[in-house]
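User: I'm curious whether this sequence folds into something compact or stays loose and floppy. Could you predict its structure so I can see for myself?
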Amino acid sequence: MFQVHSTAIIDDNVSIGDGTKIWHFAHICSGAVIGERCIFGQNTMVANDVVIGSNVKVQNNVAIYTGTTIEDDVFLGPSCVLTNVTNPRSQVKRHSLYETTLIRRGTTIGANATIVCGIVLGRYSFVAAGAVVAKDVPDYGFIMGVPGRQKGWMSRHGHLLHFDDSGQAICPESAFRYQLENNQVRCLDLDEEAPLPENLTLGEKTYDQFK
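Assistant: Here's the prediction. I'll summarize afterward.
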């Protein structure tokens, strides 16, 4: 079963997985498909036919528009912005031309960041707060600024990776090894589609404690 606050609106023809929680003044529109153990904060909106995976955390004031697909384990920070038309005009109806945005597994989008539609955010990519992203982001890519530019690579636990001469780096929190080759990063110790082991899902130290 899923939980819905009394102020939230759930339209007909919606699929919501077990353990999902939908909080104050949220609106889930017809045709939306939402996985298990998700959290939708206050004043969130999921538009028609959006597909969202499991264990997705959507913070307050986020609207997810038609054309967006979100895989498992994604974090959408407070008031981040997603779009679905590149050149919107009030007088021109482009409902049949919504562009697609794919947010791959494990991605983090920081507070107040803007994601311009028609792009792919790779697995475990990390978009810093306030960034504006208008082009594809590689797996584990770390994006900052306006316009958004890649500033490095982030581990699954959200730590900057520092690669040695052999192209390997170690996450200070999980001790997972990562390989950089041909400007692509992959984890050597865990399949990209595998969830984190249970003993690594509880963060007990602040980011600064790993510096």
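Summary: The chain has one domain: 3-160. The CA atoms of residues 143 and 149 lie 5 Å apart.
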